[in-house]
Amino acid sequence: MGPPLTHRAPRAKPDGTRVADYDYTLPEDRIARYPTERRDESRLLVLNPVSGAVRHRIFRNVVELIQPGDLLVVNESRVMPARLLGVKPTGAPAEILLLRPAGSVDWSRPGALWEALVRPGGKLKPGRTVVVSEQLSVQIVDGAAGGGRIVRLDTDLDPLEALERFGHVPLPPYLGRPDEPMDRGRYQTVYARTPGSVAAPTAGLHFTEGLLSELEARGVERAVITLHVGPGTFRPVEAEDPAEHHMHTEMFEIPEETTRAVASVRASGGRVWAVGTTVVRALESAATDDGRIRPGSGVTDLFIRPPFHFRVVDALITNFHLPRSTLLMLVAAFGGYEPVMAAYAEAVGEGYRFYSYGDAMLIGAGSA
User: Fold this and answer.
1) How far apart are CA 226 and CA 117, in angstroms?
2) Please, are residues 163 and 196 in contact by the beta-carbon 8 Å criterion?
3) Residues of 96-116 as b/e, b for ≥16 C-beta within 10 angstroms?
4) pLDDT for the residue 139
């Protein structure tokens, strides 16, 4: 007589309720380690979330897809050269990644304290110093949550000038390369204004000044928000149940002019287009139940995942995101889990370039 039979319940069909549902296989060579020669030459996958239909375009074709009377909302945050490479007094190498001002939003104030990540973490305890150059050193002042540190920049220069001179562009770790001079411009949107991010709002990297001018001439309005992107944007969700994930927080600001523009376009029947997940998070965090936007500054830890009722955003331009990431979950909440994951599989099969310097995706009913 053979061994007793064991009966296993069949694994439920993936439906977006578990973190494992957001796994997908990406060949290593599909990670875009460098940008395209021209910003608007990247490819554009256009997804209709209602029908699931997909079209393959070039990003500059976005001018044909955004209609007169629609509103394009962009994130004006500027990436800081926040990665500081230096040495300890022993001569051993050390690295500081500035995250945000500690207790003050005036990050340009001399002597201001910063929250930071440090490497090697076990060696850089409070009281230690990292020398970046003759004109800039970093004092480790205290510990911070999550293994971080509170640090102070010691310099006779204006802090912004010191970072511009001696800081490095904090490229995502998956690019697997040090920053290069061209990253100073290309890992920045053409409309970046307010310093504060340690990662680019990458959906906006595809726009050129010429493309924005074409959209304006077509009758497409533009409004701005500022949301400073933190390193948590790259952190995969480790819990199996998304509800157990602790979302990172990010600071944002929405001008009064933007709230009026959103109200006006919605009243006239136009669509609100979010350029990137950062814009979605800011607008939906500030939205009232009836879809109005509250102006002003705030901090958001909004975790958008299926199911989610979007009160403001009608169409989304975004990049292709990491597996098991909160960004991919947000996109799935917007476009539908099955249509989005099917579109990702098609993008892999069609040779699209992924992540920060990669190609783009447009999600909007009537667009495909």
Assistant:
1) 23
2) no
3) bbbbbbbeeeebeeeebbbbb
4) 96
Burial profile 8-26: b = 16 or more Cβ within 10 angstroms, e = fewer: eeeeeeeebeebebbebeb
Gap between the Cα atoms of 273 and 174, Å rounded:
28
Q: Token pair of 132, please?
A: 């970046």
User: DSSP 3-state helix, strand, coil percentages of the chain (rounded to 5)?
Assistant: 25, 25, 45
CB 343 within 8 A of CB 320: no
Q: For residues 278-288, give the mean pLDDT.
A: 97
Strand ranges, E, within 80-220: 83-87, 93-101, 113-119, 129-133, 136-143, 149-154, 194-197
> Which residues are CB-neighbours of 263 under 8 A, at least 6 positions away?
292, 293
Cα dihedral across residues 196, 202, 206, 212: positive or negative = negative
Which range among 104-113, 213-222, 244-253, 274-283 shows the weakest confidence by mean pLDDT? 104-113
Report pLDDT for 122: 86
Q: Coil, strand or helix: which one is 20?
A: helix
**Location of structure tokens 């149940």:** 241
**Using one digit for the tens of pLDDT, what is the confidence trace for 293-313?**
999 999 999 999 999 999 999
Query: Quick one: DSSP state of residue 242?
Result: G
Per-residue tokens: 120: 């090697």
Nearest to 100 by CA among 237, 286, 252: 252
Nearest-5° angle of CA 46, CA 48, CA 52? Answer: 110
Q: How far apart are CA 155 and CA 241, in angstroms?
A: 46
Name the one residue in this structure whose structure tokens are 């969700």: 237
| Alpha carbon distances (Å) from 295 to 157, 191, 225 | 34, 20, 10
The span from the CA of 202 to the CA of 36, in Å, is: 13
Considering the chain, what is the average pLDDT of its residues?
Answer: 92
Is the pLDDT assigned to residue 108 strictly greater than 70? Answer: no
286, 285, 278: which is closest to 326 by C-alpha? Answer: 278
Handedness of CA 47, 53, 58, 64 (dihedral sign): negative
Other C-beta atoms closer than 10 Å to the C-beta of 304 total: 21
